[in-house]
């Protein structure tokens, strides 16, 4: 066989091997990634619908909820009670709170996921602010739940 044919066969074998390795790796995390995204999408669906029942299903029992505020003296971290957040959502009427996200980086392990979502927030159809959400989710026996959420807010 010529060197050209051997080289072509070698490239085909390597390509096939890498393709199989990627398929088996992504197949292992494709379903959980979809499940993680669904929890986050449910959170924002609950916000726009003012649905506290759906909203509560998105969080673990010990969730930490924080915002980084950009103050003249520097970054200030505000911790909010999840119960206060849920109550504030429940006081809204549907279609008042509209946080539009894009899924950025998603990193996953068997029990933990980190999700980065840049967003733009609209209140009553008017632009309010933008920023980034950083979610930490854990896979509990009930499924994926948000354990930690911190966000930034900019005008």
Briefly, what is this?
The protein is of the alpha+beta class and 155 residues long. The protein is built from three helices and seven strands, in the order H-H-E-E-H-E-E-E-E-E. Helix content is 39%, strand content 42%.
Folded structure, characterized:
The protein has a single domain (29-152), classed as Nuclear Transport Factor 2, Chain: A. Strands 1, 2, 3, 4, 5, 6 and 7 form a 7-stranded mixed beta sheet that branches. The chain contains 3 helices and 7 strands. The protein has 155 residues and is α+β, with helices and mostly antiparallel strands. A hairpin with a 3-residue loop joins strand 4 and strand 5. The radius of gyration is 21 Å and the shape is globular.
Question: How is the secondary structure organized here?
Answer:
Layout: H1 3-49, H2 52-56, E1 59-71, E2 74-80, H3 82-90, E3 97-101, E4 106-108, E5 112-123, E6 126-140, E7 143-152
Parallel strand pairs: 1-7
Antiparallel strand pairs: 1-2, 3-5, 4-5, 5-6, 6-7
């Amino acid at each position: 066989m010529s060197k050209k044919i051997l080289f072509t066969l070698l490239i085909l074998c390597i390509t096939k091997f890498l393709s199989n390795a990627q398929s088996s790796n992504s197949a292992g995390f494709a379903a959980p990634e979809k499940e993680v995204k669904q929890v986050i999408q449910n959170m924002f669906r609950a916000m726009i619908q003012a649905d506290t029942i759906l909203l509560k299903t998105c969080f673990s029992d010990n969730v930490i909820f924080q915002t980084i505020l950009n103050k003249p003296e520097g970054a200030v971290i505000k911790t909010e009670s999840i119960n206060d957040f849920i109550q504030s959502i429940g006081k809204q009427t549907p279609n008042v709170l509209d946080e539009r996200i894009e899924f950025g980086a998603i990193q996953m392990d068997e029990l933990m996921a980190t999700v980065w979502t840049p967003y733009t927030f609209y209140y009553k159809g008017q632009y309010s602010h933008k920023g980034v959400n950083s979610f930490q989710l854990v896979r509990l026996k009930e499924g994926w739940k948000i354990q930690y959420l911190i966000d930034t807010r900019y005008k």
